[in-house]
């Protein structure tokens, strides 16, 4: 058996300075001190050989359901947070990894989705759902109440996680959502989804993302490379809940901004710094004769649907079905609260019935 001194020399042999120091030190050490030095040196060497742990993914918690309620409760005391239970006959599958981003600064990064579907083996249309939060905050759980209720009406609903601006800037979220779309088609048989009848919806910033994804099938700069590339990313309907359609529209562009404003951060600069990027990220410029039907649900804040009128004009010129409904209240995230939640479910479900079940 090796002596502690011999093992210590073997551990130190790769570092000549430490080895020379150790040789001179051992001559001065008492045998009783040798074990202490051995253990201390061993711990130092083990610690120095441990790979650094990935950084923790930054999380912005400025937008939550409760913070949103606090902003409106004095003006609208009737507002109540939606907390609907899972409807009878609906099965849910939580935190399914739909793609893995390898070797990020946070390590291998899994992105997840939650899936809800009515019981039974019937093939059904699907709805991909994108949460809001200024491209910086929020999470997929915010779409779960809507997802559960729409699923109970005969749809497979899928709420997805995507990379927010504290982690990754535009167009990372677009690439994520396109990957989720491809995952849905790749797993259509497993979850009894009709791959020819897939819609996408989004709320607030999620509405902008849903429209951008839905209006750009097959556009290379938006497709990304996050799996299942053999599957297409076209959708058959788009549902926008209070989301801007054009960053360049006066209602959007004339809004005062700071360096930490949500869109400035996500697009990595002000309009005057990145004009091409601001236009590129605006869904309006991709609408045309091949666009799918679109539903728009608006709050009483016109700035949240900047560019919508122009987009509707394009759709109408090409005889593409579209609907607009407005909640005349100064509540941006109205879909998160009663008494506006149930009408939101009805508008969305009825539109899906008209476009995906025809």
Describe the structure.
An eight-stranded mixed sheet has the order 2-3-5-4-6-7-8-9, sandwiched between helices. The protein has helices spanning 4-12, 16-28, 31-48, 65-72, 144-151, 172-186, 205-214, 220-223, 250-253, 262-266, 275-280, 308-317, 341-356, and strands spanning 80-81, 90-104, 107-118, 124-130, 156-160, 193-203, 237-241, 294-298, 322-326, 337-338. The protein is 35% helix and 19% strand. The longest helix has 18 residues, at 31-48. The chain has 358 residues and is of the alpha/beta class. Helix 1 (4-12) packs parallel to helix 3 (31-48). The protein has two domains: 4-48, no CATH class; 65-356, Rossmann fold. The protein is globular and about 50 Å long.
**Looking at this structure, what is the CATH superfamily of the largest domain?**
Alpha/Beta hydrolase fold, catalytic domain
Number of strands: 10
Overall mean confidence score, pLDDT: 90
Uncertain parts: 1-29
Q: Give the overall shape, derived from the CA principal axes.
A: globular
Beta-strand level of the residues, as a percent range? 15-25%
Radius of gyration: 27 Å
CATH class label of the largest domain: Alpha Beta
SSE ordering: HHHHEEEEHEHEHHEHHHEHEEH
Biggest β-sheet: strands ordered side by side in the sheet: 2-3-5-4-6-7-8-9
Number of helices: 13
Distance between the termini: 80 Å
